[in-house]
Amino acid sequence: MSDEALPRTGFMAQAFANRSFVAGFVITAFIAAVALLSFFWTPYDVTRLIVADRMQPPSAAHLLGTDQFGRDMLSMIMVGARNSIAVALVAVGIGMGVGVPLGCWAAARGGYIDDVLMRFNDIVFAFPALLSAIMITAIFGPGAVNAIIAIGIFNIPVFARVARAGALAIWPREFILAARAAGKGKGLITAQHILPNITNLLLVQGTIQFALGILAEAGLSYVGLGAQPPMPSWGRMLFDAQTRMIVAPYLAIIPGMAIVITVLGLNLIGDGLADTLDPKLRRRR
Q1: What is the 3-state secondary structure (H, E, C) of 113-138?
Q2: pLDDT in tens, 211-261
Q3: What is the mean pLDDT of residues 4-9?
Q4: Staple 272 to which of 18, 74, 129, 264, CB 3.0 to 4.6 Å?
Q5: What CATH class has 11-53+61-284?
Q6: Which residue has the higher pLDDT, 284 or 51?
Q7: Where are the domains of the chain?
Q8: CA separation (Å) from 188 to 52, 103, 183, 185?
Q9: From CA 194, how far away is CA 199, in angstroms rounded?
């Protein structure tokens, strides 16, 4: 295994010594805890409409106020966090689970296989997540599952390119040549030597795509292609609030800040991981 890979011993100590990682970890852990809590408890039932309580500003009874249907905003933010994280997490898992093997295979085989796979990636890149969701929705109808599929498909070429680039940089190395001389096949070399040495790239890219997945889910929900009512979604909450910005600006500010804070936390984790996992950056410190 190459000396480029980060030793597992002391990794967490190095990560938590990085201020960006710590800040991002705290923010993301809080959002994740709120999302997890929403499975077991919310202040109010998000599907219950109480017209008499509609458009109430933040108060002791409703800490973040109520929306135009009388639903508790805090409860909706909690459930919306669950939906956004679930959609982004599964979509990133799809992209990584399919894209990484494709990228490693292209780097290992080379030749026309590499060319065909990369041109296929270019074709997928030509259809952003929103456009892919529109096409999928036209066939299967709107919903969170179709949003996951659309975002996941868009993530596949991203991880394929990252894995391919990282693998191509490692294949000419001396320890890979020694492994080949020892009779190891390309598949075994990829599993034992290539993947461990590109894990740092994949982790950093994974946090970036997770943040982009949160934004993509919010965008799809905003245009009505994500989670459908009565299930709350941060993007849908923004859409519903746009006609009430003057009379109740908190309806847009609260879900908007939830999106910003979540994406900020994930980006800070990505920056911290990049600093911790990049041996060149570590040597400079």
Answers
A1: HHHHHHHHHHHHHCCCHHHHHHHHHH
A2: 999 998 898 888 888 888 888 899 999 998 888 888 889 999 999 999 999
A3: 47
A4: 18
A5: mainly alpha
A6: 51
A7: 11-53+61-284
A8: 65, 15, 10, 5
A9: 9
